[in-house]
Amino acid sequence: GAVVSQHPSWVICKSGTSVKIECRSLDFQATTMFWYRQFPKQSLMLMATSNEGSKATYEQGVEKDKFLINHASLTLSTLTVTSAHPEDSSFYICSGSLNTEAFFGQGTRLTVV
Amino acid sequence: QQQVKQSPQSLIVQKGGIPIINCAYENTAFDYFPWYQQFPGKGPALLIAIRPDVSEKKEGRFTISFNKSAKQFSLHIMDSQPGDSATYFCAARFGNEKLTFGTGTRLTIIP
User: Fold this and answer.
1) Phi and psi (nearest 5°) for B47?
2) Does the beta carbon of A51 lie under 8 angstroms from any beta carbon of chain B?
3) Which of A54, A79, A104, B36 fits a 20 to 30 Å CA distance from A45?
Protein backbone atom coordinates (compact mmCIF):
# COMPACT_ATOMS: atom_id res chain seq x y z
CA GLY A 1 0.00 0.00 0.00
CA ALA A 2 0.89 3.66 -0.21
CA VAL A 3 2.98 5.27 2.52
CA VAL A 4 2.08 8.32 4.53
CA SER A 5 4.78 9.64 6.82
CA GLN A 6 3.94 11.83 9.79
CA HIS A 7 6.44 13.80 11.82
CA PRO A 8 7.11 14.08 14.67
CA SER A 9 5.76 10.90 16.22
CA TRP A 10 5.61 12.59 19.60
CA VAL A 11 6.11 16.11 20.92
CA ILE A 12 5.94 17.80 24.29
CA CYS A 13 5.43 21.54 24.36
CA LYS A 14 4.75 24.26 26.88
CA SER A 15 1.36 25.88 27.20
CA GLY A 16 1.04 28.88 24.92
CA THR A 17 3.49 27.71 22.30
CA SER A 18 2.72 26.46 18.80
CA VAL A 19 3.45 23.05 17.37
CA LYS A 20 3.66 22.00 13.73
CA ILE A 21 2.94 18.47 12.56
CA GLU A 22 3.91 17.37 9.07
CA CYS A 23 2.18 14.79 6.91
CA ARG A 24 3.85 13.57 3.74
CA SER A 25 2.67 11.14 1.10
CA LEU A 26 5.92 9.41 0.15
CA ASP A 27 5.03 7.46 -2.97
CA PHE A 28 1.89 9.09 -4.26
CA GLN A 29 0.34 12.49 -4.74
CA ALA A 30 -2.52 13.33 -2.43
CA THR A 31 -4.78 16.10 -3.61
CA THR A 32 -6.77 15.62 -0.43
CA MET A 33 -5.48 14.90 3.03
CA PHE A 34 -7.49 14.49 6.20
CA TRP A 35 -6.56 15.38 9.76
CA TYR A 36 -7.97 13.45 12.69
CA ARG A 37 -7.80 13.65 16.43
CA GLN A 38 -8.11 10.57 18.61
CA PHE A 39 -8.68 10.45 22.35
CA PRO A 40 -7.73 7.33 24.34
CA LYS A 41 -9.95 4.35 23.62
CA GLN A 42 -12.05 6.33 21.18
CA SER A 43 -12.55 6.41 17.46
CA LEU A 44 -10.96 8.86 15.07
CA MET A 45 -12.60 12.26 14.95
CA LEU A 46 -12.21 14.16 11.70
CA MET A 47 -10.95 17.67 12.25
CA ALA A 48 -10.54 18.98 8.73
CA THR A 49 -10.16 18.13 5.08
CA SER A 50 -7.11 19.64 3.45
CA ASN A 51 -7.09 20.30 -0.29
CA GLU A 52 -3.91 21.13 -2.14
CA GLY A 53 -3.75 24.79 -3.05
CA SER A 54 -6.95 25.81 -1.30
CA LYS A 55 -8.29 26.45 2.16
CA ALA A 56 -9.02 23.55 4.42
CA THR A 57 -12.58 22.59 5.26
CA TYR A 58 -13.08 22.28 8.99
CA GLU A 59 -15.59 20.09 10.77
CA GLN A 60 -18.16 21.69 13.01
CA GLY A 61 -16.72 22.66 16.37
CA VAL A 62 -13.09 22.71 15.22
CA GLU A 63 -11.47 26.12 15.59
CA LYS A 64 -9.77 26.98 12.31
CA ASP A 65 -7.69 29.73 13.92
CA LYS A 66 -6.35 27.30 16.46
CA PHE A 67 -5.66 24.39 14.15
CA LEU A 68 -4.01 25.87 11.09
CA ILE A 69 -3.79 23.57 8.11
CA ASN A 70 -1.62 24.17 5.09
CA HIS A 71 -1.51 21.93 2.03
CA ALA A 72 1.12 23.61 -0.07
CA SER A 73 2.00 20.69 -2.32
CA LEU A 74 0.59 17.37 -3.47
CA THR A 75 2.80 15.52 -1.01
CA LEU A 76 2.79 17.71 2.09
CA SER A 77 0.15 18.94 4.48
CA THR A 78 0.87 20.54 7.84
CA LEU A 79 -1.20 21.03 10.97
CA THR A 80 -0.14 23.77 13.35
CA VAL A 81 -1.65 23.80 16.81
CA THR A 82 -1.41 27.44 17.86
CA SER A 83 -1.24 28.65 21.45
CA ALA A 84 -1.49 25.07 22.66
CA HIS A 85 -3.16 24.28 25.96
CA PRO A 86 -3.24 21.06 27.99
CA GLU A 87 -6.68 20.22 26.61
CA ASP A 88 -5.12 20.05 23.13
CA SER A 89 -3.07 17.06 24.27
CA SER A 90 -4.14 14.20 22.05
CA PHE A 91 -3.13 11.82 19.28
CA TYR A 92 -3.25 13.51 15.88
CA ILE A 93 -3.36 11.44 12.72
CA CYS A 94 -3.32 12.41 9.05
CA SER A 95 -4.35 10.41 6.03
CA GLY A 96 -3.98 10.73 2.30
CA SER A 97 -6.19 9.21 -0.35
CA LEU A 98 -4.98 7.23 -3.33
CA ASN A 99 -7.83 6.37 -5.66
CA THR A 100 -10.50 5.73 -3.06
CA GLU A 101 -8.29 4.11 -0.43
CA ALA A 102 -7.17 6.04 2.61
CA PHE A 103 -3.69 5.55 4.04
CA PHE A 104 -2.80 6.84 7.47
CA GLY A 105 0.30 8.30 9.00
CA GLN A 106 1.73 6.78 12.16
CA GLY A 107 0.23 9.55 14.29
CA THR A 108 1.66 12.27 16.51
CA ARG A 109 1.27 12.19 20.28
CA LEU A 110 1.05 15.80 21.46
CA THR A 111 1.45 16.54 25.15
CA VAL A 112 1.03 20.13 26.30
CA VAL A 113 2.44 20.86 29.74
CA GLN B 1 -27.64 9.62 8.40
CA GLN B 2 -23.85 9.26 8.35
CA GLN B 3 -23.41 6.99 11.36
CA VAL B 4 -21.70 3.62 11.29
CA LYS B 5 -22.51 1.43 14.29
CA GLN B 6 -19.91 -1.10 15.36
CA SER B 7 -20.14 -3.97 17.82
CA PRO B 8 -18.93 -5.39 20.08
CA GLN B 9 -16.94 -2.75 21.91
CA SER B 10 -14.49 -5.36 23.11
CA LEU B 11 -13.90 -9.00 22.38
CA ILE B 12 -11.75 -11.71 23.90
CA VAL B 13 -11.10 -14.85 21.87
CA GLN B 14 -8.85 -17.80 22.40
CA LYS B 15 -6.03 -18.39 19.98
CA GLY B 16 -7.25 -20.21 16.90
CA GLY B 17 -10.80 -18.93 17.33
CA ILE B 18 -12.69 -16.76 14.85
CA PRO B 19 -13.49 -13.29 16.17
CA ILE B 20 -16.33 -11.57 14.35
CA ILE B 21 -16.86 -7.81 14.40
CA ASN B 22 -20.02 -6.31 13.02
CA CYS B 23 -20.91 -2.95 11.53
CA ALA B 24 -24.17 -1.44 10.33
CA TYR B 25 -24.73 1.68 8.30
CA GLU B 26 -27.64 3.85 7.24
CA ASN B 27 -26.46 5.77 4.20
CA THR B 28 -27.16 3.67 1.11
CA ALA B 29 -24.89 5.93 -0.94
CA PHE B 30 -21.79 4.50 0.76
CA ASP B 31 -19.79 2.56 -1.81
CA TYR B 32 -16.57 1.66 -0.02
CA PHE B 33 -16.26 -0.24 3.25
CA PRO B 34 -12.76 -0.64 4.69
CA TRP B 35 -11.53 -2.19 7.90
CA TYR B 36 -8.57 -0.75 9.77
CA GLN B 37 -6.31 -2.30 12.38
CA GLN B 38 -4.72 -0.03 14.95
CA PHE B 39 -2.05 -0.92 17.48
CA PRO B 40 -1.49 1.32 20.54
CA GLY B 41 0.37 4.50 19.67
CA LYS B 42 0.18 3.87 15.93
CA GLY B 43 -1.99 5.11 13.11
CA PRO B 44 -4.67 2.84 11.62
CA ALA B 45 -3.55 0.48 8.88
CA LEU B 46 -5.84 -0.62 6.08
CA LEU B 47 -6.59 -4.30 6.52
CA ILE B 48 -9.15 -5.15 3.88
CA ALA B 49 -11.94 -3.34 2.06
CA ILE B 50 -15.03 -4.25 0.08
CA ARG B 51 -17.41 -2.58 -2.35
CA PRO B 52 -21.16 -3.26 -2.36
CA ASP B 53 -21.15 -5.24 -5.59
CA VAL B 54 -19.69 -8.31 -3.85
CA SER B 55 -20.91 -10.20 -0.79
CA GLU B 56 -17.59 -11.51 0.46
CA LYS B 57 -13.90 -10.79 0.16
CA LYS B 58 -10.98 -12.76 1.57
CA GLU B 59 -7.41 -11.66 2.05
CA GLY B 60 -5.29 -14.15 3.93
CA ARG B 61 -6.92 -14.83 7.29
CA PHE B 62 -9.25 -11.84 7.03
CA THR B 63 -12.71 -12.02 5.47
CA ILE B 64 -15.34 -9.34 4.99
CA SER B 65 -18.94 -10.42 4.65
CA PHE B 66 -21.25 -7.81 3.18
CA ASN B 67 -25.06 -7.81 3.27
CA LYS B 68 -26.31 -4.95 1.15
CA SER B 69 -30.01 -5.46 1.88
CA ALA B 70 -29.41 -5.46 5.63
CA LYS B 71 -26.85 -2.66 5.36
CA GLN B 72 -24.40 -4.63 7.43
CA PHE B 73 -20.86 -5.86 7.02
CA SER B 74 -18.58 -7.85 9.23
CA LEU B 75 -14.95 -8.81 9.68
CA HIS B 76 -13.94 -12.39 10.41
CA ILE B 77 -10.41 -13.33 11.45
CA MET B 78 -9.56 -16.96 10.84
CA ASP B 79 -7.07 -18.85 13.03
CA SER B 80 -6.63 -15.80 15.24
CA GLN B 81 -3.24 -15.21 16.84
CA PRO B 82 -2.09 -13.13 19.83
CA GLY B 83 -0.47 -10.74 17.34
CA ASP B 84 -3.96 -9.92 16.06
CA SER B 85 -4.73 -8.24 19.37
CA ALA B 86 -5.48 -4.64 18.40
CA THR B 87 -8.33 -2.21 17.94
CA TYR B 88 -10.33 -2.68 14.76
CA PHE B 89 -12.35 0.05 13.09
CA CYS B 90 -14.87 -0.34 10.32
CA ALA B 91 -15.56 2.62 8.10
CA ALA B 92 -17.71 3.66 5.17
CA ARG B 93 -17.34 6.21 2.43
CA PHE B 94 -19.11 7.63 -0.58
CA GLY B 95 -16.84 8.43 -3.51
CA ASN B 96 -13.95 10.59 -2.34
CA GLU B 97 -15.85 12.00 0.61
CA LYS B 98 -14.59 11.67 4.15
CA LEU B 99 -14.57 8.31 5.88
CA THR B 100 -17.20 7.67 8.53
CA PHE B 101 -15.71 5.47 11.23
CA GLY B 102 -17.27 2.99 13.59
CA THR B 103 -16.55 3.30 17.30
CA GLY B 104 -13.92 0.57 17.32
CA THR B 105 -13.56 -2.93 18.77
CA ARG B 106 -10.76 -3.81 21.10
CA LEU B 107 -9.79 -7.39 20.31
CA THR B 108 -7.71 -9.54 22.63
CA ILE B 109 -6.51 -12.97 21.54
CA ILE B 110 -5.45 -15.07 24.50
CA PRO B 111 -2.92 -17.91 24.07
Assistant:
1) -100, -55
2) no
3) A54
